[in-house]
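Usage

Read records sequentially. Each one opens with the input sequence:
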Amino acid sequence: MLDSAFLQACEAAAIAWDVPALATGVSVGGNDETAAVGCDATARFHVASITKPFTASLAVDLLELESSTGLWPADVRVRHLLSHTSGYDCELANVSQTLFETEADPLEAQLDALRHVRRWLPVEQCWSYANTGYWLAGSLAARAANSSYEEALQTHVLAPAGLEATSFEAPDLPGTGPDAATAPYPRARRPSGGLISNVPDLLRFGRRLLPERRLQIPLGKPPGGVYGLGLWGERVGGVEVWGHSGSWGGYQSSLLLVPDRDAVFVGLTNARRGGNALFELEEIFFSRLLGAGRRVAETVELPDSALEGFAGSYSNGDGWYDVSYAIGGLAVHYDDGEFLARPIGERTFEIFEGDRIRERFDFPLEGFGRFGSRLAQRVAEP
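and closes with the structure output:
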């Protein structure tokens, strides 16, 4: 599958999106192929939130999914932590996790702070990406293993899978771009995004996940697709696709699973815009494997009054989002700029320009928006 045309596509995507190093690979029927631009195919990158399916795999082996957490209210179960359906905010507001770095176990040290995370809604009322839930799940798994989270992951997931290049050490390549990391990844955040890995290891891990149906049960509804336990789900050409992306500190990554075709795709980059380059390669992968690409959502027409009704400022533990009316759609301001979006549903919008192209946001409940898949409460009208 990774022929000269695919390699040319890798080179073109890397140039188009300013990606210094890109490594990719596919596994179909157990046959692995790898390719790279600007680095070796075995180079290790930060994989960011691709860590979540690792943590989910650990949790489903060590914890009862219906058990309560012992920290948050009893209605919050382990499965809610792993499926982002707990109703809690994504981040610790006004708490720097660097405070826990000097502790012997930063995950344990931050438990008191996790008690005070803002709760938006009861469980299962609205899907909202929550790193906080993964930190709690990682801590619970570590307690069940009577070890640190890192030791538990090594013993129960990494070693059995034969993943020798996957760890919490330093990557081989630095991240690039305006958000490039200047400090190590905080240890207290590791269960949500701390791993480094390479393409061969992630292909191996992906093959182990292909038959893992426990993670592939839809439990939450993001702005696009579904979410299981540590895996996003979508349908491409009528076929189920599961996986996870990652973005942190000037790295962007992608892991895709197509169980019905016994296929895995991996893409790793060290650039803030690397996800856009990987999207182009994913489409080639889907076209060759499934004979189809992702469906492009149609634009719907909404009256100006409806569009104006979404305008205002929204806030969560992650940031501040300003939404304003634009002709035929909305404009949303993130920390990296303002982006225009078109309506693809009565309350769902898709950005159609710039670095955030194809990113979706929506307004699932009165008084709330969901930006970067995270709930944010409306705090001011225009």
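Summary fields computed downstream for this record:
- The radius of gyration is 20 Å.
- The chain has eleven helices and 17 strands.
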